[in-house]
Amino acid sequence: MLDLLAIAAALAAAGVAMGFLAGLFGIGGGGIAAPVLYEVFGFLGVDPAVRMHLALGTSLAVMIPTTIRSFLAHRARGSVDMEAWWRLAPGIVVGVVLGAAIASIASGTALKWVWIAFSFSMAAKLWFGRDSWRLGEVLPPRPVIELWGLVTGILSTLLSIGGGASITMLLTLYGRSIHTAVGTAAGIGLLIAAPGAIGFVWAGWGEPVPLPFTLGYVSLIGAAALIPTSVMAAPWGVRFAHGISRRKLEIGFGLLLATMGTRFLISVLAGV
After folding, report:
1. Angle between helices 48-76 and 2-25 (to 10 degrees)
2. Which of 34, 158, 217, 237 has its CA 20 to 30 A from that of 197?
3. What is the 8-class DSSP label of residue 214?
4. 95 and 154 Cβ atoms separated by less than 8 Å
5. Which residues does 230 contact at the CB level (< 8 Å), separation at least 6?
6. Letter string b/e over residues 134-169, b meaning 16 or more CB atoms within 10 A of that residue's CB
7. Are 86 and 231 in contact, with CB atoms under 8 Å apart?
8. Number of domains in the chain
9. How far apart are CA 37 and CA 211, in angstroms?
10. For 188, what's the count of Cα atoms within 13 Å in the CB-facing half-sphere?
11. In the chain, % of residues over pLDDT 70
12. Whole-angstrom distance, CA of residue 34 vs CA of residue 223
């Protein structure tokens, strides 16, 4: 009983953190949910061969309502670039489908290495980047932005982070403020979460996942435990983001990414 209460408390806390960070950084919160779910599924005895897949698929399912709440809150504050959103959207959706196909054949260790490389490179850009690091003030012509959306969709499905880091980097390089970049990235999260979760259901269909109430690589129990608190906390993160400076927001985002990357690096090196 105590173990079950501890798991429930961990999932509830992860939901609050996920929702808050979705609002704060526009990342969908999967970067928090996936590591927590990975540990919970390990405690429940899920085979390491499918544990990472199950954690990623479930966190994508949780991101659907969380990203909707975050996006609407940012849009209400006028911090969404809808032109960029519409240009990125088609490539994002196609990339998610390709990412799910890759996830169906990739090993758990390979997925972790993708997470590690991406998180540390993005953290370095946020920490050491300068305002002078810009590619222009106007978004480039087709198909540059559209291809960026495609790559973002693939990587975000594999990383389960909603695409926030990639979209934020792109928009800041083209002169958008960090707050507008984060708000726009929040809107991209839904385009990744919904088809991404469906893709993980398909990828894991028929796999012997030793947990009740699963659809492929999505745990319905895990999603139900995380969704209420994550949706509740998303507007808190939005309000906080608009109350702090651009530089503090960048440093905080970098710390989050580096922390998640370190966690998976330790896991890979320890062979667990």
Report:
1. 40
2. 237
3. E
4. yes
5. 15, 16, 18, 19, 22, 29, 33, 62, 65, 66
6. eeeeebeeeeebbebbbbbbbbbbbbbbbbbbbbbb
7. no
8. 1
9. 13
10. 44
11. 86
12. 11
Tokens of 45: 């005895």
- Extract the tokens encoding 69: 């709440």
- In this prediction the pTM is 0.69
The structure tokens listed for 147 are 């291809």
Tokens of 226: 């995380």
The answer to whether residue 246 scores a pLDDT higher than 80 is no
Could you tell me which residues come within 8 angstroms of residue 140 by beta carbon, excluding any fewer than 6 positions away?
Answer: 174
- Alpha carbon distance 244, 22 (integer Å): 16
Distance CA 246, CA 241 (A): 9
For residue 215, the cross-strand partners are 218
What would the pLDDT profile of 57-71 be if each residue is shown by its tens digit? Answer: 888 888 888 888 888
Q: Which helix (H) or strand (E) holds 48?
A: helix 48-76
Q: What average pLDDT does the chain have?
A: 79
Q: Which domain holds residue 222?
A: 2-270
Across residues 136-143, what is the average pLDDT? Answer: 78
Give how far Cα 205 sits from Cα of 5, 25, 65, 156, 194, Å.
30, 32, 23, 21, 17
SS3 219: strand
